[in-house]
Structure formats: structure tokens, C-alpha cells
Deoxyribonuclease gamma-like
Amino acid sequence: MRQQHLLEENKPYIYRQVYGRGEGKGTNDILVISRCDIMLVMEIKDTQNKTCPFLMEKLNSLSKGTEKEFKYVISERLGRKTYKEQYAFIYRPKLVSVKQTYQYPDRQPGDEDAFSREPFVVWFQAPRSAVTDFVIIPQHTTPETAVREIDELYDVYLAVKQKWKSKPLSPIDRSIYIFT
């Protein structure tokens, strides 16, 4: 995968599959995340909401006394029936800020419940980077539903444009990133 260097200090956007290994493991994952300005974590299945606070504790202990602390924004629990997941973005607030979030409702007439897990859309601002405003739309899908869900992401894109129409959309329109 080709990496793009957009943020301060030429830090790459990193796509990495991080598997749930419990609290005692994952030291390498903490080190990988600590090198990022923004990290998307998908498939959080933690019903007790301990994962992100645990990550924040570990990450911020590495950067104690520096300006490199982390924060996170997390989606509601998403999914059908009893199987639920969450998306979370971990970010450095000194470099990147969250302008707005939007949980796509997936209630489009005639196309209800198109997503197994609805996209959680986040609008970021990074004033010291080449791209100062951008939106990330993550989508965790399965092979069985991938074609339909990826097709439906266009509707999400249109909904985001409509929802944030009063905002300066010209840079955002060119800076919407979709991860599946």
C-alpha cells in the first residue's frame, strides 16, 4: 500500500489490522499507534467500554510530559441484533482536531438497513498540514455484503455533503477519504 504524507512531520496515514488480544498483549500495537497523528480502530467489540480508556492510558503514559497526548472519539455501538461493534479515531489534539461527527442513520426509504454497521463520519481539521480540513468515512464490511455496502457509501457521501452544506465544503468535497 502506498502511504501519503499529509500531516505535520510527514507522518503517514497507516492502515493496520489490529486484532483483539486482551489487555496484557498488544505492546507493538501501542507503539504503532503512538507514531500516528490519527488512527482508525475498527471492530471494537468491548461491551464494557474499556478498550479506548485503556489505550489512552497506555498511549499517554508513553508521552507523559510532552505535547503528544492522545484523545479519541468513538461511535455508538453498531450492528444488527446482539452483535455490535464500534469505530474509534485516536488522534493528537495538538495537531488534529475533531470539528464534527456524524453517525449515518441508514434509514433511506427503499434501502433501509443497507449497512451491517453504519459508517461513523468524522470531520477533522489539521491547520499545520497540507490538507487542513478533511472527512474520513470508515466502513467495516464483510465479503458477503461488500459490493452493496461500498455502493451505498455514495449515499453516505451525499448525506455528508448535505449535512455540512453550510460549512466550507469546497476543501472537504475534495478531501473525503473512505476506508473499507
In short: Confidence is low (pLDDT under 50) at residues 1-25, 168-172.
